[in-house]
Specification:
Layout: E1 3-8, E2 20-25, E3 31-33, E4 40-42, H1 43-51, E5 55-58, H2 71-75, H3 78-123, H4 131-158, E6 161-164, E7 167-170, E8 176-177, E9 180-181, H5 192-197
Parallel strand pairs: 2-5
Antiparallel strand pairs: 1-2, 3-4, 6-7, 8-9
Bound molecules: zinc ion (ZN).
Zinc ion (ZN) binds near residues 159, 172, 173 and 194.
């Protein structure tokens, strides 16, 4: 197999780029007979002319130019070609997988945005708020709920039941004082405060 190399030449003061020689080794010189005017054309010489090489060396010998790394030529065994093909195939598969993943991410982001809006609605806050605002709103709701539960607990504790003359009365509403009541005894199940707490306030006016 022909190997292409560049042999750089020392640059002269009139050179606008380093002069070079095109080296084609492990290859037989090729000449094509074209006609009488221009009887012999050399394929490699034509290329050298076109790429601006000062000259071309075509030789069946192997030429090692110390400045050049020709190891790529050495390793190019069938195994290397196959492994490179595998690698290319692997990269293509990976690129496809990433493309699918990007699609998945876009779809997930869309779902997430919808869920966020639903959550904002459930929390009763503006849809444009961010996740931190939502967390804060949820934390506030929990604080309020806990405070309300404690307040209700204090009210129930105040309007607790006590046995009085064989019946259960509300300590607070009856103004129970140890053994007697300062108010007319109020049956525990008729305590207006507890009925209100329990949502049983739909009383008719005459009651
Ligand atoms: Zn009461």
């Amino acid at each position: 197999m022909a190997r292409l190399q560049i042999l750089e030449l020392p640059e002269g003061s009139s050179d606008d780029r380093p002069p070079f020689v095109l080296v084609v080794d492990e290859s037989m010189p090729q000449r094509i007979l074209l006609g009488f005017d221009n009887p012999i054309r050399d394929y490699w010489q034509d290329i050298a002319d076109k790429i601006g090489a000062r000259a071309v060396i075509v030789t069946p010998e192997t030429v090692e130019i110390p400045a050049n790394d020709t190891s790529a030529y050495l390793c190019e065994s069938g195994e290397a070609v196959r492994s490179r093909a595998d690698e290319t195939q692997g990269r293509t598969a990976e690129a496809l997988r990433l493309a699918h993943e990007r699609t998945d991410i876009a779809r997930d982001m869309d779902r997430l945005a919808k869920r966020r809006n639903e959550l904002a609605d459930a929390l009763g806050i503006d849809r444009l708020r961010d996740w931190d605002d939502m967390r804060n709103a949820a934390a506030r709701l929990r604080q309020e709920r806990d405070a309300q539960a404690l307040a209700i607990g204090r009210v129930r504790d105040l309007h607790r039941p006590v046995e009085y003359r064989g019946t259960s009365i509300c300590v607070e509403c009856s103004a129970f004082a140890g053994s007697t009541t300062d108010n007319a005894p109020v049956a525990y199940n008729q305590c207006g405060t507890l009925r209100a707490l329990n949502g049983e306030t739909e009383r008719s006016p005459e009651e």
